[in-house]
Structure formats: C-alpha cells, structure tokens
C-alpha cells in the first residue's frame, strides 16, 4: 500500500498545488474584484457589445458570428498569457514548495496546446451552435487558468502585517531578526 502512495506522490502534490491556487485567492477581496470586473467584465466587453446588439433586435448571423469570434479571441489571449505565467514559474515565486515545477510547466504547455486546438475548432467549425460551444468551453477554461496562474500575485493578494515582518509562527521563517533597542530613549 505504501508503494502505491509513493507512485502517485507527484500527482498528489500537483493536485494539492492546483487546489491551493483555487482556494487561496477566495480570501482576498482585491483578487475577486479584479477577476470579476477587469478580467471577466472589462476583458469580455467585445462579447457583451455584440450580445447587446443582438438584444436590440438585430438577430442577424453577423452578430452571432462576432460573438463567437470575440469569445474565441479572448480565450486564446487569456490562455496564452496564463500558460506562459505557469511555464515561467520558478521556485521562488510560489509558496507551495512541494510541487515539481516541471509538472506545472508541462501543465501550462498542455493547456496552451489545448487552448489553440479549441480556438481552431471554434473559429473554423461551420456548425454555429457547436462552434459557439467550443468558444464557451474555451472561455471558461481561460478564466480557470487565469485564476490558477495569477493566484499568488502579490499585487492581487492581501499580505497580513505579520507575514511582511516575518511571522515567528511561520515554519518557513528561518531568518532571525537582530538588533537592539539600547539607543532608544523613552
């Protein structure tokens, strides 16, 4: 039984890495607000504009085609940028040290290839409903991958004051602070 566990240790570590990157940002209002308002709403403005045009009575093929193309281009851009973030990740940038970075980098490459294939299918497929489905799946995948790749960005996460000063309860805190208050007068 112990050998079976050791066989899947790297998989367990990789899935723990993904779970941590999914859960951690939920604690930060800054991250959530940035994701919802900048990435989803502002980043998908072209899609919303075309949907608005359709809702105003112009139910023509051109607008549905534009929605599909906009979705495809947005998800390709997000997947490419997020995949490169994961590919270029180094050990100093992640808090999760147990993961093999080569696994994360290979995940980034795999999703980049999958995203490009989804983009081709959504742009080139002639059946509109199926093509729209490929674009929708690609967009959801892109949002998920953006979340994973940007979850540890310090600009988007709040840092507690004890972490910034070197929390003495932190296991990774190996640096002892030195100094004295002898020269201070009260």
Task: Describe the protein in words.
- This protein is mainly alpha-helical.
- The chain has helices at residues 2-7, 9-23, 29-42, 45-55, 61-87, 101-124, 128-150, 161-165.
- The chain starts with a helix and ends in a 21-residue tail after the last helix.
- α4 runs antiparallel to α5, α5 runs antiparallel to α6 (101-124) and α5 packs parallel to α7 (128-150).
In short:
It is built from eight helices and no strands. It has about 190 residues and is an all-alpha fold. The model has no long low-confidence stretch (mean pLDDT about 85).
Which helices and strands occur, and which strands form pairs?
Layout: H1 2-7, H2 9-23, H3 29-42, H4 45-55, H5 61-87, H6 101-124, H7 128-150, H8 161-165
Helix pairs in contact: 4-5, 5-6, 5-7, 6-7
Features:
single chain; 67% helix; mainly alpha
Query: Structural class from helices and strands?
Result: mainly alpha
Low-confidence stretches: none
Q: Count of helical segments? A: 8
What is the end-to-end distance? 64 Å
Biggest sheet, open or closed, and with what strands and sense? none
β-sheet strand percentage: under 5%
Helix amount: 55-70%
- Mean pLDDT metric: 83
For the secondary structure, the number of strands is: 0
Oligomer type = single chain
- Rg from Cα: 22 Å
What general form does the structure show? flat
Topology as a string of helices (H) and strands (E): HHHHHHHH
